[in-house]
Specification:
With about 600 residues, the protein is of the alpha/beta class. The chain is built from 20 helices and 17 strands. Helices cover about 45% and strands about 15% of the residues. Helix 3 packs antiparallel against helix 4 and helix 11 packs across helix 16. The longest helix is centred in the first third of the chain and has 28 residues. The radius of gyration is 29 Å and the shape is globular.
């Protein structure tokens, strides 16, 4: 306030009057700022001068934008107009809170301006026609400093989204058939969530978890615990983080400290499965069983034991369920004994394997046996539900299908439905109690753990899911979606269709009879993705289904809110994309 007061004093000492702002951006900035500050015709010359300066900046930037049509110029114009608005709001607030009314009244006698004629002009934006003429992909100049996932790919530039549709800068609409990376479970652009983001950001955006707890974090923890199975509902403790990889890292460390607190310092090994994906950070990558993602970083990751997955389509024992007696889960006990039960801390697995195998659920009995084996050898059971948690499979968690209560549940993605980075670990009562009765604190943490802004967004998403019955809807719509996907079998390259709820995988093969996959050099999953992109459909491709070396698949996992008509449109585009891709594939 003192700074603004000094500026007003300087103005009264003879500072020259600002030039009259030109039409266009200047009028827009002044009109909007005046409206927000509530001063109307009584605004001081200092406010008008400041707004004129910022608005002139906006006008110059807008001219540059119209001339160059670059993303940078567009952003400059937007920021300049926003600056004009904010100056008006700051000065308005300062006058209300800190300036003597009599002094303001005296000043206004000399500098009163006539009221603006007509309604305030809207903020200037590039005309839609101009925006549509821009290239759909980022230009070399615009993308010069961004480090994308793939430096050899020209990505479309997304500009807005609503429901299951994402629009690029050129105006092309893409049907989001995979919720991004199986994330956007409630759809894009939900107003109720957007409103919470704005309100919470103004009230309390950050408080470090080493210094405060917040109402938002406590409420979210309670909501998540209520969704958890068994005794976790009452005794579970929820550790909030910023995503799936962080959550897996947290679960690994928590498993280790749990055994330390109980005097079992030798227990540190985490057993996981091949053809799994648990995250990109080094700890999560160590337990990941995706060979291709591990290979470049092998010297950096810890050596951890892995066992085969529960994958009937490509059974490593060449047996069939149920006559196989679930031989793959027996491997867990064999490896625990081989490694030494006094060294094994936990077993982590996905109830429905996502990114690496393409929506492969375990057979009934697998998780029940895994629970019994873990109990026998004092090993914690961790369910990785980053992709499947919060309703994706038609139940709160995928583990609910198997009626098993794990010791730790890792979740993310659907927890915030893409509206903020958010993840969580749910720890069963005895795990948290071991920490509390031991040293008392968990030797772990992240800067944004339990931050109130993300927690508030998570609460809004879970409230929206509950209010609209979206988990039950995911179960119903998932059955419809799964049934409609069976029509893909008319394409000779479709080998298997599996999944549950709103998460389905389709495996692509060279020969349906032998299940022989295409060679990795054919890049089938990438070709299929590109073909579907041309059709305006987003799918989630993957590879490595056969022993991590070859085998292609893709996941279909739209928002729970997708309509029947939109499912029909998804299938139509998918059929066209498959037909287009098949024409370009090597002959079988």
């Amino acid at each position: 306030m003192k700074r603004h007061g000094a500026k007003r004093a300087a103005a009264r000492r003879g500072k020259p009057e600002a030039r009259k702002p030109q039409a266009g951006a200047a009028e827009a900035g002044r009109g909007k700022a005046a409206a927000r500050s509530g001063k109307g015709p009584g605004k001081t010359i200092l406010a008008d001068a400041a707004i004129a300066k910022a608005a002139a900046h906006a006008e110059a930037s807008m001219r540059a934008e119209l001339r160059n049509r670059t993303m940078l110029a567009e952003r400059m114009a937007e920021e300049a107009v926003t600056e004009a608005e904010e100056i008006g709001m700051l000065l308005g607030e300062d006058e209300e809170e800190g300036e003597d009314d009599s002094e303001k009244s005296e000043e206004d006698q000399y500098f009163l301006k006539p009221p603006a004629q007509g309604p305030p002009r809207p903020r200037m934006r590039p005309a839609p026609a101009l925006a549509e003429e821009e290239p759909a992909v980022a230009t070399a100049l615009e993308a010069a400093h961004l480090f994308p996932r793939n430096l050899k790919t020209d990505y479309p530039v997304a500009v807005r989204a609503e429901g299951i549709w994402i629009h690029d800068r050129r105006g092309k609409a893409y049907l989001d058939g995979c919720s991004g990376a199986v994330v956007c479970s409630i759809g894009h652009g939900v107003p109720e969530v957007a409103g919470v983001i704005s309100k919470q950001a103004r009230r309390l955006a950050f408080a470090h978890s080493s210094q405060f707890v917040t109402r938002e974090a406590m409420e979210l923890a309670a909501r998540i615990a209520c969704l958890a199975p068994g005794d976790m509902k009452k005794t579970g403790r929820v550790y909030l983080v910023s995503g799936g990889s962080e959550a897996v890292e947290t679960a690994i460390k928590l498993s280790r400290q749990y055994h330390l607190e109980r005097g079992h310092a030798s227990k540190f090994k985490i057993i996981s499965r091949w053809q799994s994906y648990h995250g990109s950070t080094l700890g999560a990558l160590a337990v990941t069983g995706n060979v291709a993602r591990r290979e470049p970083y092998t010297p950096l990751v810890a050596s951890t034991p892995h066992i085969p997955p529960c994958f009937c389509y490509r059974c490593p024992y060449d047996r069939k369920f149920p006559s196989c007696d679930i031989a793959c889960v027996d491997e867990l006990e064999r490896v625990i004994r081989q490694e030494g039960p006094d060294t094994v801390a936990a077993f982590i697995a996905e109830p429905v394997v996502g990114a690496t195998l393409g929506a492969v659920p375990a057979v009934d009995g697998y998780w029940q046996r895994a629970r019994a084996i873990c109990d026998k050898y004092d090993v914690l059971l961790i369910a990785d539900e980053v992709m499947t948690g919060i309703g994706r499979t038609g139940k709160n968690f995928a583990i609910d299908h198997f009626k098993v209560v794990p010791d730790l549940i890792v979740t993310g993605k659907g927890l915030s439905a893409g509206y903020t980075p958010l993840g969580a670990v749910i720890a069963r009562g005895p795990v948290a109690e071991a920490i509390r009765s031991g040293r008392g604190y968990f030797e772990h943490g992240f800067t944004y753990s339990a931050n109130p802004l993300s927690a508030a967004i998570g609460n809004a998403v879970l409230e929206y899911i509950e209010k609209h019955g979206l988990i039950a809807r995911a179960a119903r719509t998932g059955r419809l979606l799964g049934g409609r996907l069976q029509s893909l079998r008319r394409h000779k390259v479709v080998g298997d269709i599996r999944g549950m709820g709103m998460m389905w995988g389709v495996e692509i093969v060279r020969s349906r009879a032998t299940r022989e996959p295409f060679p990795p050099s054919a890049k089938v999953s990438r070709r299929l993705y590109d073909a579907c992109l041309e059709e305006g459909l987003l799918i989630y491709p993957g590879s490595g289904t056969r022993e991590g070396q070859d085998g292609d698949h893709f996941i279909i996992a739209p928002a729970f809110t997708i309509t029947t008509a939109e499912i029909d449109e998804l299938l139509a585009r998918l059929h066209r994309g498959l037909a287009r891709a098949v024409k370009a594939l090597p002959s079988s």
